[in-house]
Design a protein that fits this description.
Blueprint (H helix, E strand, L loop, with lengths): L6 E4 L1 H6 L6 E4 L13 H9 L5 E4 L6 H10 L33 H11 L13 H8 L1
Parallel strand pairs: 1-2, 2-3
Length: 140
């Protein structure tokens, strides 16, 4: 029986520091690949060079022109998929967003709990956080 394909799902920072090899590489927040070196495609090419034989996929909620250039240089026959809302509108038109001022960092969790309890925030939902540690704290 053949070995199962290896899949690396990572952020740009993880892609740059990954030591192994993979059959498939999925980079989320691909627009951040350019943040590390002020838009240097050479830095990105070096980070992805170790995955020369892998099938690569880049995902990003925002696709600035530099990311399009990156896709053209780093991917074979790149395919761009754009998610649209009803009637061909932007996907963000179909997303309800709410800004809640909480004052201090320690008050964020209580504010999130209050939104869930009041029914204002219906689960399941997406909550974006800055770090893995913050996600763990929120999950607890």
């Amino acid at each position: 029986m053949a070995d199962a394909p290896s899949i690396e799902v990572c952020t740009p920072a993880r892609a740059a520091s990954f030591e192994g090899d993979a059959d498939f590489v999925v980079v989320d927040e691909a627009d951040r690949l350019l943040d590390a070196q002020s838009g240097s495609l050479a830095h990105v090419d070096a980070a992805l060079a170790r995955f020369s034989k892998a099938t690569k996929a880049f995902f990003s909620a925002t696709v600035p022109p530099a990311v399009d250039e990156l896709a053209e240089s780093a991917l074979r026959d790149p395919l761009r998929i754009r998610v649209l809302g009803a009637g061909g509108t932007s996907a963000t038109d179909a997303i309800e967003q709410k800004l809640v001022f909480v004052g201090k960092e320690k008050d964020k969790l209580a504010a999130l709990r209050a939104l869930v309890r009041s029914g204002t925030l219906k689960v399941p939902c997406l909550v974006f956080v800055e770090s893995d540690e913050r996600a763990r704290v929120l999950a607890r």
